[in-house]
Structure formats: C-alpha cells, structure tokens
Specification:
globular; two-stranded antiparallel sheet; Rossmann fold
Length: about 180
Amino acid sequence: MKLENKNIVILVEQQYQDLEVWYPYYRLKEEGAKVILAGTGSANTYMGKFGVPAKVDFSIDELKVKNHDAVLIPGGWAPDFLRRYETVIKFVQQMHKAGKLIASICHGGWVLASCGIIEKRTLTSFFAIKDDLINAGAKFVDKEVVVDKNLITSRTPDDLPLFVFEIIKNLSRGK
C-alpha cells in the first residue's frame, strides 16, 4: 500500500463531475490512503452531473491543513460553486503555502485561479477554461497531465488513469 498514512481531501459541490470524484476516491483508497469528501457546508449530500450522490464526511471549515497531505479538486460545474466560498479559497491557499499536493482536473482550475496560486505555473485543464487560467497568469499546455511542483492538473475523465497515477507517485515519494 503506497499511500498508507496519507490523508487526502476531495472537494465536492453540486454538479461535480461524477467520474472525477469516484475514480480517484476508490483508486487512492486502494493504495491505502484515507480519503474524505468535503463540502462547503451548504449541504450534506451533493448530486453529481450524472446523478450520483456524494455524502460528505466533513464541511471544509472543519478541516485543518496540517492533517492532510493533498486536496483534489474535480471538475464539472462544482468548481464554479466551490470558488464562491472563502473557506475553500483559504484552505487551498494554505495547502499551497504548506507545499502540499493540489490536484485539479477539468474545470477545477477555476478554483486554482480564484486562489491566486497559478501565476507563472504550467498547467492544463478542460479547454473551455484555458483563457481563465492564462488570464490568472498560468502557462497553459494541452497535455493529458501536467506536474508543476506541488500542482498536478489534467483535462478530462479520459485523463484520469495518468492523473491518479501521478498523484500516487507524488504522494508515495513523501513516505
């Protein structure tokens, strides 16, 4: 188990991309990580774009950065809702400041842009938010996965195998 003793937070909100939550959730657990779902506190259960419910373990304001090794921001429309919450922004900013892993896929880059942590960083995302990321100072590349220090980014559910592989590789180095 490569990720034993690793704690990972997956952020969820309404209209999250179902595969981008559940594929990493189960794959990371398979590697021994403790994976929790955290919401904004506006609900206890959030519905994915395709109707899969996600019951959260915690509200984001209950979490402490020191207790977690990584945060994963899935796509769908959820990132547009997540970035409206100051507690989400502060948590991701603090994770970044602590040098902890931040993984973002699809529209998750919206949260990264709102956090102000992508200036002069290379990343990827779903093509529709490319301009938003560039305007936030990022260098955008159209690749399956991009690793830039503590940021790991991908484009779509088709990229999930390599995206999660890179998350596992990154976190297992710090054992």
